[in-house]
Amino acid sequence: MRLSVIGCGYLGAVHAAAMAAIGHDVVGVDVDSARIETLAAGHPPFFEPGLEELIGEGVASGRLQFTTDLKAVRGAAVHFVAVNTPQVKDGYAADLTYVNAAVQGLLPFLSPGDLVAGKSTVPVGTAATLAERVTPTGATLVWNPEFLREGWAVQDTIDPDRLVAGVPAGEEGERAADILREVYHPSIAKNTPFIVTDYATAELVKVSANAFLATKISFINAMAEIAEVTGADVTTLADAIGHDARIGRRFLGAGIGFGGGCLPKDIRAFSARAEELGRGESVVFLREVDAINLRRRDRAVDLVVTALGGSVFKKNVTVLGAAFKPHSDDIRDSPALDVAVRLHGLGAWVTLTDPEAIENARRIHPQLNYVEDRDEALRGADAVIVVTEWDEYRRELSPEHASTLASGRIIVDGRNCLDAAAWRAAGWEYYGMGRP
Ligand code: NAD
Ligand code: UGA
Asked: Is 262 an active-site residue?
């Protein structure tokens, strides 16, 4: 099939490349000409495992094209909208400027029977409003939310755990669902659940999934706060409750909390939308989820300050990690980078390293000292804090080796990802998050 993808960021570039990889002819469109130039040359504009190969192969085969010229979408049967929906600057709501502009821009190029498939994460009610603009062209609007995780985006797109399609009622909706079944045929043939529903449910599935994940993380971080005043160990607690299949161990990783381009802004946008709908009280707990999450960054900073005797002023602090999670170069609302910036603000000489995110971090926070090489970054450190659980720090850094580089023997494990006993045995003062 011929497809177009509007917006070629972390979601759209992966979607475009994955759709080409499963056999479709795809044109990706973005307003960012530098991004399009990179993509058209066969390279991803950001780090995502497996994406370099996928884009390279797609572009070389001629089945994957990128342009800034929206006219190129003409003739595509399905137009995916994957533009950003950030938090508004003066509140919690989602900024729909880009989604509105993308859909408005598409209108002159739509043919009767085309699908416009929204993939961006939007407040419930958005699709119904956009459909009023799309329907007069004879095209159909569907909402097809995306659940990929950064770091696993290629795999999650080619082999998702479910597909959701919000469609209009009646025959038009049935036909639209059939077209999406054709697009995703390889996944559906492998028995991936394909859930067809109305617009509001599809939009809510997306935001409620992210709200649930954020709540799960903040739940365990709340337990970490209780563990801190009782001497309990939150990691053992998580293991123990996680054995209950109804609870499950995944997303019970206590630490400096969640960040990224989605969970934080999505729970806020959900609260804002619920309030508009007169149901603010239904999700008022999300405010607490947010607050618990942000407190964990304070806690990590406090641990470093306390371990260094009450002040980090003019102390060498090495921060391992800048990305919001491993296997990504994304620093949007990164708790890791936030902790580094706060320590710098308290007068520490912060040296920061990360396998992939240094360039992005430097652009936003040029005041920090960035060092590519992990060992170089550790040299002379009075204290070390792990804030992104890359294998380079979690598995590949032994405390004995770190001892040959650092000046001090203080290690703060902001992700509870290190072997505490091994670090202590090597003579380090180990501080975890919610661990004795
Ligand atoms: P992003 O900022 O990385 O990418 C958005 C892209 O859209 C940018 O390249 C921007 O230049 C482009 N754009 C903006 N307006 C445009 C227009 N009118 N025409 C063409 N291009 C335009 O954002 P992202 O992380 O890819 O997220 C996109 C959406 O997908 C958001 O709603 C997000 O919540 C959702 N989402 C993201 C992920 C993820 O892992 N990043 C996963 C699921 C859902
Ligand atoms: C998240 C969801 O997992 C995806 O399903 C969704 O599609 C996406 O948001 C989105 O809507 O954009 P992502 O942001 O890529 O994906 O990353 P996650 O793996 O969910 O991690 C989010 C944050 O939570 C990271 O900062 C991570 O370090 C943190 N986290 C995760 C914890 O603190 N503890 C955990 O146990 C798990």
From this structure: yes
